[in-house]
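Fold it.
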Amino acid sequence: MTKVTMTVNGKSVSGETEGRTLLSSFLRDGLGLTGTHIGCDTSQCGACVVHVDGKAVKSCSIFAQDVAGATVKTIEGMANADGSLGVLQQAFQDYHGLQCGFCTPGMVMTSAALLAENPKPTEAEVRHGLEGNICRCTGYHNIVKAVMAASGQSVAAVAAE
């Protein structure tokens, strides 16, 4: 067992892990942050996306000990300080960018990383940026609208595909 310390959602946390413990498991089982979903366990679906030092990472593809000392942000860290939904989360709600909700944490985290790199993406750039995330319910149309709205752009021209 190895002691791992990192900053998660602004708080320093520590825990004992085996070398093979995935970051997704450390967050869910070790820290109780169950908003990070595990969909495929093979880094195919994107439900487990978190930010590690500001970069979107599929947490089922990295060991917890490999991010020791890093700053990690999960979906639980996306809310406003008063607990209300953050801009991107609110846009997902307002534009019906979720249905069953299983993919939503990963979609929000991936979208936040996209908007941090490109604050005013085109519709095509949003669709490209979300390619590593699978949604079985929405058809992506409303997710794209939500991301465009969160970026302050009009959603009127977003095409159904």
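Strands lie at 2-8, 11-17, 49-52, 55-58, 71-73.
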